[in-house]
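Supplementary material to the annual report.
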Amino acid sequence: MRDFGPSEMARRNYLFETIREVFKLFGYQQLETPAMENLSTLTGKYGDEGDQLLFKVLNSGEFLKKVSEADFREGEHNVLPKISEKGLRYDLTVPFARYVVMHQNEITYPFKRFQMQPVWRADRPQKGRYREFYQCDADVVGTDSLICEAEILMMIKQVFAKLGIPDYSIKINNRKILTGMAEVIGEKGKEGDLCVAIDKLDKIGLQNVRDELYQKGFSVDSVAALGPVLEKERRSNQDWFAFLKEYLAGSSTGMKGLNELEEVLAFFSQLGGAEQHVVFDPVLARGLSYYTGAIFEVQVEGVQIGSVSGGGRYDNLTGVFGLAGISGVGFSFGVDRLYDVMDALGIFPDQQSEGTQVMLVCFGEEERKKGLALLSAFRKAGIAAEIYPDLDKIKKQFNYADKKNVPFVAVIGAEELVNDQISLKDMKSGKQEALSLERAISAIINSSLK
Amino acid sequence: MRDFGPSEMARRNYLFETIREVFKLFGYQQLETPAMENLSTLTGKYGDEGDQLLFKVLNSGEFLKKVSEADFREGEHNVLPKISEKGLRYDLTVPFARYVVMHQNEITYPFKRFQMQPVWRADRPQKGRYREFYQCDADVVGTDSLICEAEILMMIKQVFAKLGIPDYSIKINNRKILTGMAEVIGEKGKEGDLCVAIDKLDKIGLQNVRDELYQKGFSVDSVAALGPVLEKERRSNQDWFAFLKEYLAGSSTGMKGLNELEEVLAFFSQLGGAEQHVVFDPVLARGLSYYTGAIFEVQVEGVQIGSVSGGGRYDNLTGVFGLAGISGVGFSFGVDRLYDVMDALGIFPDQQSEGTQVMLVCFGEEERKKGLALLSAFRKAGIAAEIYPDLDKIKKQFNYADKKNVPFVAVIGAEELVNDQISLKDMKSGKQEALSLERAISAIINSSLK
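Predicted assembly:
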């Protein structure tokens, strides 16, 4: 797990603010849930592997009270439920589902919420994968309108435009198209295995996907029938749709998925969205089995970092908590990966204005009295200001301003005291001028607006 | 632990933003540390009671691997270190100290950092006390300049002024004054017991404080000598200082504390601070034993909620991690309590502009096509906008806007479509007008500026 120092925090806050602004512009409202949830809420939602990766919190006090010697000899499986009742959240989706069920009577549907909080996974740390990382989720539940999907495409494009990320693709697919594929190749009902296998196409290659399908019992004929899908030529979205209209003709589910997809893109176009960056990908499955409609995933070109955003529609998010029939669609930005992307591309904006804008350097005690009054005047003008707190050597004071990247230093010596002026030094250009307080304030504000 | 829905989040963000702005104005830079720290970092820093209240995280995988049957029979004390290595942070001070030691060579001193993150305590939940709550800390380390203390007083006053909290007191004391008191009453070296007892004066009353001191071995004479301090009359700060000048004359440490206090207030006055709300309190000790100089605590009048802010100077924060001689001073806002205070006083500002500002209601499919284009135009103008995603009954759509407190509804029916206009309804006044897009945008922006 990582510490974030001042310059990283300034950049992270820039990402959070950019995403938050877009979420709010689209009518999403913020929600926060606690770090700990009951293990009964968390377990069984992320598959066996996910359950392994949950951080479990030890019950407080005499945590061994309920554990018998027999339990102990049986091992972890018997001991765990007796010493731990809570775990750290693994994502923001399950806590959101729990929230919707708990507050179902207060919520106005459709409910558009966003959530930006850390999640924890007891994973082996590696590049781009952390044990503590932030997710920024936006979901809308209580409507099956495909306008929501179109708005998600708009939001992703808007965030990327604001961040200045030039080359990326928003891959889009529909779970029903995957279901339809399984049907038309003669393997109806096996879309689960199909998804798991073809989802890995980019990672393991065509032959390995085929082998995995054979192992799962797919016939040679059906794998051959998948050919035109797996041997993805570069086609335009429109060419793909034309192809699928024939390919999926035998599956009403598949055709429904295709229609949904076309409708999403129609709404997207009515919203003024340009299809640039939006790429249909027939093998996109995102592993997760709970998607029932649209599936999204965003990849940035030119960097070796996994997907930075993804999501999809689910028809039964809250069913597992006893509230059926709530359809929703959502997506998530991985801020830690976005950070790595921006950093790798070198496109973070200059964050100089985030920190202190002026530092006061005083020659002696009398000057410092004056300095303290000026300090408050700068702050009253909205300028982040500090005074070097000790009467150290002037050089040491300047060094401090330099190391902290403070753009202006205001020097107060004997002469400035007599003339009621400030010697304002622009640390970048090295230029120094004797100014009145008012003119110094203007100079600093004008410079920060550049 | 608590969920925070949209309206609570808007208010909480307002508090965080207000505090963050002031911290930044004073030159503090943001830091974030991970939720989990090694238990070796956390334990032994908060006393026995604190150690009990740490949330411990179970090691992942085969957590019982290292536990022998003998350990198990010995109980929690032997088992804990073998099944848990990490805990959730209990405050932001210890992680900050750990950070300073880890990054000592990269840090420019004086190092001014702020941190706004949740902390966790396995406490029995009660009013004003939560198991998960946010702290907002600002500390400066690497200087013993008393300007820092004066700036803390300024920051507290500025935050309270911005929040509009009218009646509050910033109690201030100095640990050396407490040490001096122990000396002059003839109980030198026993200021620890003295602090613990007199700190409770407001809670348990004079007689109980005296009894506790007797129990701790204080003589009748020395408790009697404390009389003028404990029987706190309402004196002005200046009267107190005059009194203490004689009372503490026999203790050089006590006199040093008094001088420090007067110097803090002199710097505060040079910064332009008015002494209103700043109250010297000779029995303020804040329990914590690591304060070595100034001690602060802020109480809001008119509400039964504990202190909302507090802090002090410590001369050896990082000594326990092997880095001695780093003096610092810091303080913290308890945002959850500040929330309760603001809520109890009914002084949260109207947060209407936080949410969606306009919702589009469309009569049919053709109108919706137009509506989607308008939606993007509103957002392009920076107006948070949404469209009701389904073609439901108009009344249902209006109900949604009403429940979500959306101030404007833009209606698009057949007539509006023909005239290329929007019927903009002000939900508060009920007034409805047919407007061009441009005029509708102006109307919404002007209304939100009010």
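Chain A has three domains: 6-27+102-345, 36-88, 355-449.
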